[in-house]
Amino acid sequence: MIWKKIKVGFHKLGSPPVFYRVCQVVAPWLWAGAAVCAAFGLYKALFVVPPDYQQSDSFRILYVHVPAAWQAMAGYLVMSILAIIALVWRIRTTEIMAMMGAPIGAAFTTICLATGSIWGRPMWGTWWAWDARLTSMLVLLFVYLGIMGLYAAFEDKRKGARVACILILVGLVNIPIIHFSVEWWTTLHQGSTISFFGESSMDASMMPPLWWMVIATKLMFGAALLDRSRNELVEQDRRKGWVRQKMEATA
Amino acid sequence: MTPTRKKRLAVVGLIVLSVGAAATVAITALQDNMLFFISPSDVHAQTLPADRHFRLGGLVSEGSVSRDPHSLLVSFQVTDGAHEIPVTFTGILPDLFREGQGVIAHGNIGPDGVFHAREVLARHDETYMPNEVARALEKAGTPHEVNMPTSRQAQNQSGY
Predict the structure, then answer these.
(1) pTM for the whole thing?
(2) Distance from CA of A191 to the nearest CA of B (A)
(3) A2, A148, A181, B113: most buried by Cβ count inside 10 Å?
């Protein structure tokens, strides 16, 4: 019974007016949650957590760098799932969501690369090195830009979305490469600090702000994705009846 | 699921699998070239020509750093526990450079057997802790030992 209700609810999300309404209602809550988590996390990261024994205060940049890097990769996984649904079931709202994730993911990747570079200059002694981790992360940025470019190159948005969804699946292979690069090869970038199944090599007193920031970036991604998808839907359907009705109602 | 959708799902699966297979083959073939640095043991195992430039990675041996008082010349030993290689470098070292810390030096081994570095980068290991914790560990007689992967280790871990 409950299963059927969930199923019907999902099917309804395929309808543009329902999808529009749901995005409109849910997104502000996600933004609010993200703002609260980020404010709390940043405060703890900058003022509460003790400085590192070697890097002193410079290590605090990781509270932006690591959540951004994880979100850049998690965002790609979300897009891949949406792309599979879009390719198999051809649901238009899913196609739009898969496409709208790309610029957000690209933004998180850019934040990750920039903060890493800023940290690397004083700590490593260089802004950039062509090691496996840094290079595979740069490839992720180019994949994101490629998806955006391919989608924009088509006059027919649905066709463009379908082609770009295939590119999403091709680029998926890069995600495990990014993750395991520091284990498979010798790299300038350090290995993983946080271990979900073993002991992490970060002192427990430094952990809480990281989780707040991780939650904040997840919510931020979700909020931006819903807002962007809603906008794209209205833009595409601007001559359709349901959008006109909505606009007349608010005008 | 309708037959058409089943077919589409199979095609999607095929795309992911074939790209994955292609990447695996490419990565396996490029295994050695993907290494950012090699360890002193690797240098020992193979004799490189004197003018061959490469990146040497390891820990700075304790008590091995000596600075020339009149210039920016620094010399130290890089070790991976099994072998040591003497390194000289003229220039400014990164903040994290210190004895016991991981470093990656780019240069070549001269006829004198010394590694002449053109660039020295510090490598941070993945450990973060406050001062008090570091001091407590030292007091307890178990100071944190910096962990530096060696190229051999990396090759074994890959599982190929």
Answers:
(1) 0.92
(2) 6
(3) A181
